[in-house]
Each structure stands twice: as structure tokens, then as C-alpha cells.
Design brief:
Strand content: 15-25%
Structural class: alpha/beta
Shape: globular
CATH topology of the largest domain: TIM Barrel
Bound molecules: N-(iminomethyl)-L-glutamic acid, fe (iii) ion
Helix content: 25-40%
Number of helices: 15
Radius of gyration: 21 Å
């Protein structure tokens, strides 16, 4: 099956020599081709160039994209999109002045979602998550990482992971799954947190590994949640089963999470509101992708991670939605682009690199997704008629995605 898209106003984020990630100053660079064509053979990009170079115009499907742009789909490398119910009542508590940590301490927050996930059927969780995936696709996402973490018991965590496996099998999106057994401390383990860490190590990790349910392992390493020592134990245990780390770090304090992630050669460490010189130093030269979650920082009205400082130091930066019912109830990566530019003063090119190639790296798929390159998986979207690609972050709140293609097929 051959698809030809012609007269593309601008083909954005093309790579002739594909890279796995983009660092520092290079984040401001992004190749585009004006008045371009793109050819897809089956599920892969086969060729692209400017319209004057187009020779072979035969194809099974021909699309005229006059006035529209084509971009690679977003990679959303951090989500919690399997959940039950919503938490708008806590949102009101936050407006009234309660902090995220205060809500968590009195059994709200993650524990609130855990209770609902424990009560929900696998079928219901699957259907709700599938609806969210469909919404994501319509906003231009082509790959998503999904975490467990609202289980809190081995049984409920495995239920969540089985839902993610079913989503992998039935959705056209590229999906990676992460065991986040250590997302919060259940009430009955308060004061004996080590026993809960033991449960993660002795039951959750071996069971998830035995059923092949997880690609990665995550821990909420932060003030009031899991310590660096807890995290070391769990990540060592995960590594024995081949689970690479992707951890929540430094959202609430300078908690040592970033250094811990680097020590374990984590694929990513995420949130990073509290990133200082020592943390930047630790990340430099590592293979760990610093990942910022602008939706959570916006929704919780938090300080912003020092993204410019990180890029100036030569680091790569990725961005993801963190889609979850507590701190970021949106899966719209176009909004993340706008937050990147407004709240972190990123240039549109930097924001696009952060949400495509670098977020692809942060979920281990940038060898096949995250840019338009020959041989890569054809996950992309055609925009509505827009004047420039800078218009994408600029016109926040408007859906600029008109048609989406996953694995070479329109969805
Ligand atoms: O990534 N920070 C920890 N975990 C989630 C929040 C989950 C929740 O509040 O339900 C996050 O923001
Ligand atoms: Fe998260």
C-alpha cells in the first residue's frame, strides 16, 4: 500500500540522519521542507522531498495537503491514563488552598484514585482508557507510555497492567507500559513504609515480570513519598528482571531523585521542578532523559523546572502530558506545546523537539518514532490550514490536527 501526500505547505521535523535524542543548542534546530511531498509504503515513511523533486506520482491513496502542514505524531512518554472516576472535588480543595501533599496526607489524591481502581472492573478500566486513547489520537499523539500506580495492592496493580496489555493489543497507538507499584503509601502501611517496599519487591515486580506485563519500572521518589533508599531497593530489584527505570523525581523538593535516576541509568526522570546545579551536573553525560510535565506544573500552580538553564548546560529536555485524574487531567499534547513556549520560554522548535523525538527517547521508541525519517513508523498528522508551524503553540486551545495516520493508515 502506497500513500502519497502532495503539496504539503511545510513538512515539519524531517530527519535525514535520524538521531535518538536532541541536546542543548540543537533543540532550537529543526529541519522542515516547504512545498513538500511525503510517501508512505505500508506502515513506514518511504520518501520525502520538495514538490519539484517528486517523480513517481503513482499511489493507492493520493492526498492533496495544500495549505496544510504535516508533522510526526507526538510521543507522550508519561501518562497515568488507566484510572477510574475523576477528582474535581479535590481540585476545588486546591483552589481553597490545600496543597497536593496535604490532600495526599488525609487519604485523598492518589489513594482516592486507588480506591476507585480497586473497585472497578477490568472491562470498565479498559473502556474508559480506550476512550482517552481515542481522544489523544485526535489531538495528534502517536505513542504513549502508560503507568500502573493506582492499584496499591498486587492484585489491583496487575489488573491495571493487564488493561494496558489489552490496550497495546487493540489500539493502533504504540504503547509502553510501566509498573508504578510505588506511587503512594497505602494507609495500612503508614509508619511501616519498608513493608510496602517489600511488597513491591517480593510480589509486584516478580509477578509483572513473570507475565511480561511491564516494559519499565517507576517510583514516586519525593518528599513525603518514597525515599532514595526505598527507590534504590526497588530499582535494583526491577533491574534483575530487566525493567529499566523511569522515575518521578524532584517534583516537591530537592529529594535526590535525579541523582538516583542517573545512578540507575534510568531512561528518564520526570517532573524536575526542583532542579539545581548539582542535579544538572548529575544529568550531564548520562543517558537519562530529563522530562518536564508542564500540564501538572500548570494545574498545580507550581514553580517551573529551569528548562532554559538545562538546555543552556547542554542537556536534552523532553515533555509529556502526565495525563492523570489528580495533577493533569488532560492528554492534549498541543496544550503542552503552548505551555512549553509560554511558561518555559521555549522556542516552538525546542517545544516540538521536546514532544516528539526527545519524548520518544524517554519512552524508548525514538529509533522508530518522533520524526519523519525514511524507514521510521508512519505515525503523523495533517494539520488544519495554518499559516506557520509557530501557529501550533500560539493558537492554544484550538485543535490544529485535522487527520491522523498511525502505522501508515488513517485513523
Ligand atoms: O505524575 N506525582 C505523582 N504522580 C502523579 C499524580 C497522580 C495523582 O495525583 O493521581 C503525577 O503528577
Ligand atoms: Fe506522573
Amino acid at each position: 500500500m502506497r500513500t502519497l501526500i502532495k503539496n504539503i505547505k511545510e513538512l515539519v521535523q524531517v530527519e535525514r540522519q535520524p538521531r535518538l535524542r536532541v541536546c542543548g543548542k540543537d533543540m532550537a534546530q529543526m529541519e522542515t521542507i516547504k512545498n513538500a511531498y511525503l510517501i508512505i509504503e505500508d506502515d513506514k515513511f518511504a520518501a520525502f522531498g520538495s514538490m519539484d523533486e517528486l517523480k513517481e506520482t503513482n499511489a493507492d491513496i493520493i492526498i492533496d495537503a495544500t495549505g496544510r502542514m504535516v508533522l510526526p505524531s507526538f510521543c507522550d512518554s508519561h501518562t497515568h491514563l488507566v484510572y477510574a472516576g475523576s477528582r474535581e472535588i479535590e481540585y476545588i480543595d486546591k483552589i481553597r488552598g490545600l496543597s497536593y501533599e496535604e490532600i495526599a496526607k488525609r487519604g485523598g489524591g492518589i489513594l482516592n484514585s486507588a480506591k476507585r481502581v480497586q473497585e472497578a472492573s477490568e472491562e470498565q478500566l479498559y473502556e474508559d482508557a480506550m476512550g482517552r486513547l481515542e481522544q489523544m489520537i485526535s489531538f495528534g499523539t502517536g505513542a504513549v507510555e502508560i503507568k500502573s500506580g493506582y492499584g496499591m495492592t498486587t492484585e489491583a496493580e496487575m489488573k491495571m497492567l493487564r488493561v494496558i496489555r489489552r490496550l497495546k493489543e487493540t489500539s493502533p497507538l504504540t504503547i509502553k507500559s510501566t509498573l508504578l507499584g510505588a506511587h503512594g503509601i497505602p494507609m495500612e502501611y503508614r509508619g511501616r513504609q519498608e513493608a510496602f517496599v517489600d511488597l513491591v519487591i517480593d510480589e509486584m515486580i516478580p509477578q509483572a515480570a513473570a507475565e511480561g506485563l511491564a516494559d519499565y519500572i517507576d517510583v514516586f521518589t519525593d518528599q513525603g513519598f518514597f525515599t532514595v533508599e526505598d527507590t534504590d531497593r526497588m530499582l535494583d530489584a526491577g533491574a534483575k528482571y530487566g525493567l529499566r527505570a523511569k522515575i518521578h523525581a524532584n517534583e516537591l523538593a530537592y529529594s535526590g531523585g535525579i541523582q538516583c535516576a542517573v545512578r540507575h541509568n534510568a531512561l528518564s526522570c520526570d517532573h524536575l521542578e526542583y532542579t539545581g546545579d548539582a542535579e544538572i551536573e548529575a544529568l550531564l553525560g548520562s543517558e537519562t532523559m530529563p522530562t518536564v510535565l508542564p500540564g501538572a506544573a500548570f494545574f498545580l500552580n507550581m514553580v517551573h523546572a529551569p528548562v532554559r538553564k538545562m538546555m543552556d548546560a547542554g542537556l536534552p529536555v523532553a515533555m509529556a502530558s502526565d495525563c492523570n485524574p489528580g495533577s493533569s487531567p488532560s492528554c492534549n499534547m498541543q496544550l503542552i506545546l503552548s505551555f512549553a513556549c509560554v511558561n518555559y520560554r521555549m522556542l516552538p522548535e525546542e517545544a516540538i523537539n521536546a514532544t516528539t523525538i526527545n519524548s520518544g527517547y524517554a519512552m524508548g521508541v525514538s529509533d522508530m518514532l518522533g520524526s519523519i525519517a525514511v524507514g521510521k513508523r508512519a505515525n503523523f498528522y495533517i494539520t488544519t490550514p495554518i499559516p506557520t508551524y509557530e501557529y501550533l503553540p500560539y493558537a492554544y486551545g484550538e485543535n490544529k490536527v485535522a487527520r491522523t495516520f498511525l502505522n501508515g493508515k488513517e485513523v
